[in-house]
Specification:
Layout (H helix, E strand, L loop, with lengths): L1 E5 L7 H13 L4 E5 L2 H10 L6 E3 L5 E3 L3 H25 L4 E5 L6 E5 L3 E5 L2 E5 L5 E6 L1 H9 L3 E5 L2 E3 L4 E2 L3 H11 L4 E6 L17 E3 L14 H13 L4 E6 L5 H6 L4 E4 L8
Parallel strand pairs: 1-2, 1-13, 2-10, 5-10, 6-11, 13-15, 14-16
Antiparallel strand pairs: 3-4, 6-9, 7-8, 11-12, 15-16
Helix pairs in contact: 2-3, 5-6
The protein binds adenosine-5'-diphosphate.
Protein backbone atom coordinates (compact mmCIF):
# COMPACT_ATOMS: atom_id res chain seq x y z
CA UNK A 1 0.00 0.00 0.00
CA UNK A 2 1.17 3.50 -0.83
CA UNK A 3 0.69 6.12 1.90
CA UNK A 4 0.51 9.75 0.84
CA UNK A 5 0.42 12.69 3.19
CA UNK A 6 -0.55 16.07 1.83
CA UNK A 7 -0.04 19.14 3.95
CA UNK A 8 -2.48 21.78 4.93
CA UNK A 9 -0.21 24.76 4.29
CA UNK A 10 -0.70 27.71 1.97
CA UNK A 11 -0.33 27.08 -1.77
CA UNK A 12 -1.47 23.46 -1.76
CA UNK A 13 -3.81 22.49 -4.62
CA UNK A 14 -5.62 19.29 -3.84
CA UNK A 15 -6.79 18.86 -7.44
CA UNK A 16 -3.35 17.86 -8.76
CA UNK A 17 -2.70 15.54 -5.82
CA UNK A 18 -6.12 13.89 -6.23
CA UNK A 19 -5.91 13.47 -10.00
CA UNK A 20 -2.47 11.88 -9.64
CA UNK A 21 -3.76 9.59 -6.89
CA UNK A 22 -6.73 8.70 -9.12
CA UNK A 23 -4.36 7.71 -11.94
CA UNK A 24 -2.39 5.45 -9.61
CA UNK A 25 -5.59 3.98 -8.17
CA UNK A 26 -7.01 3.21 -11.62
CA UNK A 27 -3.68 1.54 -12.50
CA UNK A 28 -4.39 -0.85 -9.62
CA UNK A 29 -2.26 0.69 -6.87
CA UNK A 30 -3.73 0.61 -3.40
CA UNK A 31 -3.44 4.05 -1.80
CA UNK A 32 -4.31 5.75 1.48
CA UNK A 33 -4.28 9.53 1.79
CA UNK A 34 -3.59 11.46 4.99
CA UNK A 35 -4.14 15.20 4.95
CA UNK A 36 -3.59 18.28 7.05
CA UNK A 37 -5.57 21.48 7.46
CA UNK A 38 -3.44 23.86 9.47
CA UNK A 39 -3.87 26.92 7.24
CA UNK A 40 -7.66 26.50 7.12
CA UNK A 41 -7.77 26.00 10.90
CA UNK A 42 -5.89 29.27 11.37
CA UNK A 43 -8.34 31.15 9.13
CA UNK A 44 -11.38 29.65 10.86
CA UNK A 45 -9.94 30.28 14.33
CA UNK A 46 -9.52 33.98 13.52
CA UNK A 47 -13.06 34.16 12.09
CA UNK A 48 -14.54 32.51 15.16
CA UNK A 49 -12.71 34.86 17.52
CA UNK A 50 -10.36 32.22 18.96
CA UNK A 51 -7.03 33.06 17.26
CA UNK A 52 -4.49 30.26 16.88
CA UNK A 53 -1.67 30.05 19.37
CA UNK A 54 1.54 28.23 18.62
CA UNK A 55 3.90 27.16 21.35
CA UNK A 56 7.39 25.69 21.38
CA UNK A 57 7.77 22.51 23.41
CA UNK A 58 10.84 21.93 25.58
CA UNK A 59 12.16 19.53 22.97
CA UNK A 60 12.06 22.37 20.43
CA UNK A 61 9.04 21.40 18.35
CA UNK A 62 6.39 23.89 17.33
CA UNK A 63 2.92 22.83 18.42
CA UNK A 64 -0.59 24.24 18.13
CA UNK A 65 -1.98 24.98 21.57
CA UNK A 66 -5.18 22.94 21.47
CA UNK A 67 -7.74 23.69 24.14
CA UNK A 68 -11.24 22.23 23.86
CA UNK A 69 -12.53 25.13 21.77
CA UNK A 70 -9.56 24.75 19.40
CA UNK A 71 -10.34 21.03 18.99
CA UNK A 72 -13.86 21.96 17.87
CA UNK A 73 -12.54 24.48 15.33
CA UNK A 74 -9.86 21.99 14.27
CA UNK A 75 -12.58 19.39 13.56
CA UNK A 76 -14.59 21.92 11.55
CA UNK A 77 -11.57 22.61 9.35
CA UNK A 78 -9.98 19.15 9.10
CA UNK A 79 -12.96 16.75 9.28
CA UNK A 80 -15.57 19.14 7.96
CA UNK A 81 -14.14 21.29 5.24
CA UNK A 82 -10.88 19.78 4.00
CA UNK A 83 -11.69 16.09 4.36
CA UNK A 84 -15.00 16.40 2.55
CA UNK A 85 -13.46 18.63 -0.13
CA UNK A 86 -10.76 16.01 -0.84
CA UNK A 87 -13.34 13.20 -0.88
CA UNK A 88 -15.44 15.25 -3.32
CA UNK A 89 -12.46 15.82 -5.65
CA UNK A 90 -11.48 12.13 -5.54
CA UNK A 91 -15.07 11.10 -6.26
CA UNK A 92 -15.00 13.42 -9.29
CA UNK A 93 -12.12 11.26 -10.56
CA UNK A 94 -14.17 8.07 -10.04
CA UNK A 95 -12.24 7.14 -6.93
CA UNK A 96 -14.47 5.64 -4.22
CA UNK A 97 -12.95 7.73 -1.44
CA UNK A 98 -14.12 7.46 2.13
CA UNK A 99 -13.21 10.20 4.59
CA UNK A 100 -12.42 9.29 8.18
CA UNK A 101 -10.84 11.10 11.09
CA UNK A 102 -8.80 9.21 13.65
CA UNK A 103 -11.93 9.13 15.82
CA UNK A 104 -13.97 7.16 13.31
CA UNK A 105 -13.79 3.45 14.04
CA UNK A 106 -11.01 4.34 16.52
CA UNK A 107 -8.74 4.53 13.52
CA UNK A 108 -5.98 6.34 15.40
CA UNK A 109 -5.70 5.63 19.11
CA UNK A 110 -3.53 8.14 20.98
CA UNK A 111 -2.31 8.87 24.47
CA UNK A 112 -3.15 12.37 25.53
CA UNK A 113 -0.25 14.15 27.16
CA UNK A 114 -1.58 15.19 30.60
CA UNK A 115 0.54 18.33 30.53
CA UNK A 116 2.48 20.17 27.88
CA UNK A 117 5.69 21.87 28.95
CA UNK A 118 6.54 24.80 26.73
CA UNK A 119 9.19 27.47 26.61
CA UNK A 120 7.90 31.04 26.48
CA UNK A 121 10.22 34.05 26.65
CA UNK A 122 13.00 31.76 27.82
CA UNK A 123 10.91 30.38 30.70
CA UNK A 124 9.31 26.95 31.11
CA UNK A 125 5.55 26.88 31.49
CA UNK A 126 3.18 23.94 32.02
CA UNK A 127 -0.12 23.85 30.09
CA UNK A 128 -2.82 21.56 31.50
CA UNK A 129 -5.80 22.19 29.25
CA UNK A 130 -4.09 21.09 26.05
CA UNK A 131 -5.53 18.22 24.00
CA UNK A 132 -2.60 16.86 22.06
CA UNK A 133 -1.30 13.36 22.02
CA UNK A 134 0.88 10.67 20.53
CA UNK A 135 -0.51 7.86 18.40
CA UNK A 136 -0.21 4.45 20.05
CA UNK A 137 -1.97 2.24 17.55
CA UNK A 138 -3.68 2.17 14.20
CA UNK A 139 -6.85 0.21 13.43
CA UNK A 140 -5.39 -1.74 10.52
CA UNK A 141 -8.40 -4.10 10.42
CA UNK A 142 -10.59 -1.19 9.39
CA UNK A 143 -8.04 0.06 6.83
CA UNK A 144 -7.67 -3.39 5.23
CA UNK A 145 -11.44 -3.97 5.24
CA UNK A 146 -12.04 -0.76 3.31
CA UNK A 147 -8.99 -1.14 1.07
CA UNK A 148 -9.95 -4.68 0.09
CA UNK A 149 -13.44 -3.44 -0.77
CA UNK A 150 -11.83 -0.92 -3.13
CA UNK A 151 -12.27 2.25 -1.07
CA UNK A 152 -9.54 4.85 -0.78
CA UNK A 153 -9.32 5.80 2.88
CA UNK A 154 -8.78 9.53 3.34
CA UNK A 155 -7.64 10.22 6.89
CA UNK A 156 -7.17 13.31 9.01
CA UNK A 157 -6.47 14.08 12.66
CA UNK A 158 -7.73 14.24 15.39
CA UNK A 159 -7.11 10.88 17.00
CA UNK A 160 -9.05 9.42 19.92
CA UNK A 161 -7.61 8.98 23.40
CA UNK A 162 -8.21 6.02 25.71
CA UNK A 163 -10.46 8.39 27.67
CA UNK A 164 -12.53 8.83 24.48
CA UNK A 165 -11.45 12.43 23.89
CA UNK A 166 -10.49 13.91 20.56
CA UNK A 167 -6.80 14.78 20.58
CA UNK A 168 -4.71 16.73 18.13
CA UNK A 169 -1.94 14.61 16.64
CA UNK A 170 0.63 15.59 14.07
CA UNK A 171 -0.45 14.60 10.53
CA UNK A 172 3.03 13.67 9.33
CA UNK A 173 3.62 11.39 12.29
CA UNK A 174 0.12 9.94 11.85
CA UNK A 175 0.99 9.10 8.24
CA UNK A 176 4.25 7.51 9.43
CA UNK A 177 2.41 5.36 12.00
CA UNK A 178 -0.14 4.27 9.40
CA UNK A 179 2.63 3.45 6.90
CA UNK A 180 4.39 1.38 9.54
CA UNK A 181 1.18 -0.37 10.65
CA UNK A 182 0.13 -1.41 7.14
CA UNK A 183 3.74 -2.31 6.23
CA UNK A 184 3.85 0.19 3.38
CA UNK A 185 6.95 0.30 1.21
CA UNK A 186 6.53 3.93 0.34
CA UNK A 187 5.48 7.02 2.24
CA UNK A 188 5.24 10.26 0.26
CA UNK A 189 4.94 13.47 2.28
CA UNK A 190 3.90 16.42 0.11
CA UNK A 191 4.00 20.05 1.21
CA UNK A 192 4.53 23.54 -0.16
CA UNK A 193 8.31 23.18 -0.58
CA UNK A 194 10.39 20.95 -2.93
CA UNK A 195 11.68 18.92 0.05
CA UNK A 196 14.21 19.60 2.77
CA UNK A 197 16.23 22.67 1.80
CA UNK A 198 19.62 23.60 3.15
CA UNK A 199 18.60 27.25 2.87
CA UNK A 200 14.88 27.60 3.35
CA UNK A 201 14.50 30.41 0.75
CA UNK A 202 16.61 28.75 -1.92
CA UNK A 203 15.05 25.80 -3.79
CA UNK A 204 18.40 25.05 -5.45
CA UNK A 205 19.69 23.88 -2.07
CA UNK A 206 17.42 20.82 -2.04
CA UNK A 207 18.90 17.93 -0.08
CA UNK A 208 18.27 14.96 -2.35
CA UNK A 209 19.32 11.88 -0.44
CA UNK A 210 19.33 11.03 3.23
CA UNK A 211 19.68 7.67 4.93
CA UNK A 212 18.54 6.50 8.33
CA UNK A 213 22.16 6.36 9.44
CA UNK A 214 22.80 10.04 8.78
CA UNK A 215 19.32 11.57 9.20
CA UNK A 216 20.10 13.12 12.60
CA UNK A 217 22.63 15.51 11.10
CA UNK A 218 19.92 17.03 8.85
CA UNK A 219 17.65 18.17 11.70
CA UNK A 220 19.71 21.35 11.98
CA UNK A 221 18.34 22.53 8.59
CA UNK A 222 14.71 21.87 9.47
CA UNK A 223 12.87 24.74 11.10
CA UNK A 224 9.33 24.88 12.44
CA UNK A 225 7.16 22.04 11.25
CA UNK A 226 9.70 20.69 8.79
CA UNK A 227 11.34 19.21 11.88
CA UNK A 228 8.30 17.02 12.42
CA UNK A 229 8.43 15.81 8.84
CA UNK A 230 11.99 14.61 9.35
CA UNK A 231 10.99 13.03 12.64
CA UNK A 232 8.03 11.31 10.94
CA UNK A 233 10.36 10.04 8.20
CA UNK A 234 12.78 8.67 10.77
CA UNK A 235 9.98 6.96 12.70
CA UNK A 236 8.54 5.43 9.53
CA UNK A 237 11.92 4.01 8.46
CA UNK A 238 12.61 2.68 11.95
CA UNK A 239 9.17 1.07 11.75
CA UNK A 240 10.06 -0.81 8.56
CA UNK A 241 8.96 1.51 5.73
CA UNK A 242 11.50 1.26 2.89
CA UNK A 243 11.44 4.79 1.53
CA UNK A 244 10.06 8.17 2.57
CA UNK A 245 10.01 11.03 0.08
CA UNK A 246 9.46 14.67 1.01
CA UNK A 247 8.04 16.09 -2.19
CA UNK A 248 6.45 19.20 -3.66
CA UNK A 249 2.62 19.27 -3.62
CA UNK A 250 2.41 22.33 -5.87
CA UNK A 251 3.43 20.70 -9.15
CA UNK A 252 1.56 18.51 -11.64
CA UNK A 253 1.57 14.78 -10.83
CA UNK A 254 3.21 15.41 -7.45
CA UNK A 255 2.96 11.81 -6.20
CA UNK A 256 4.39 10.29 -9.40
CA UNK A 257 7.17 12.88 -9.33
CA UNK A 258 8.06 12.03 -5.76
CA UNK A 259 7.97 8.29 -6.51
CA UNK A 260 10.38 8.91 -9.39
CA UNK A 261 12.95 10.22 -6.95
CA UNK A 262 12.20 13.96 -6.99
CA UNK A 263 12.35 15.66 -3.62
CA UNK A 264 14.23 14.56 -0.55
CA UNK A 265 14.43 10.78 -0.66
CA UNK A 266 15.07 9.17 2.69
CA UNK A 267 15.91 5.47 2.75
CA UNK A 268 16.90 2.91 5.32
CA UNK A 269 20.11 1.90 3.61
CA UNK A 270 22.73 3.64 1.48
CA UNK A 271 22.27 1.13 -1.32
CA UNK A 272 18.45 1.28 -1.43
CA UNK A 273 16.99 1.32 -4.90
CA UNK A 274 15.47 4.60 -6.02
CA UNK A 275 13.26 3.06 -8.71
P1 LIG B 1 2.22 20.98 6.07
O1 LIG B 1 2.46 20.97 4.59
O2 LIG B 1 2.19 19.62 6.64
O3 LIG B 1 1.07 21.86 6.49
P2 LIG B 1 4.17 22.97 6.64
O4 LIG B 1 3.70 23.73 5.45
O5 LIG B 1 4.02 23.62 7.93
O6 LIG B 1 3.50 21.56 6.75
O7 LIG B 1 5.69 22.49 6.47
C1 LIG B 1 6.43 22.90 5.42
C2 LIG B 1 7.11 24.18 5.80
O8 LIG B 1 8.32 23.90 6.50
C3 LIG B 1 7.55 24.99 4.62
O9 LIG B 1 6.52 25.83 4.15
C4 LIG B 1 8.74 25.78 5.14
O10 LIG B 1 8.38 27.10 5.43
C5 LIG B 1 9.12 25.07 6.44
N1 LIG B 1 10.54 24.71 6.54
C6 LIG B 1 11.31 24.87 7.63
N2 LIG B 1 12.56 24.47 7.42
C7 LIG B 1 12.62 24.04 6.14
C8 LIG B 1 13.68 23.50 5.35
N3 LIG B 1 14.91 23.35 5.81
N4 LIG B 1 13.36 23.12 4.10
C9 LIG B 1 12.12 23.28 3.61
N5 LIG B 1 11.08 23.80 4.31
C10 LIG B 1 11.33 24.18 5.58
Amino acid sequence: MLIIKVGGGEGIYYETVCSDLARLYHQGRSCLLVHGGSHETNILSEKLGHPPRFVTTVSGYESRYTDRKTIEIFEMAYCGKINKMIVEILQSHDVPAIGLSGLDGRLLLATRKPTLTIVENGKKKVLRDDYTGKIESVNTDLIHLLDQAGYVVTVCPPAISREHQAVNVDGDRAAARIAEAVKADDLVILSNVPGLLEKIDDPTTLIKDITLTNIDQYFEYAKGRMKRKLLAAKEALLGGVTRVTLGDARIDSPITHALSGNGTVITRRDDSSRD
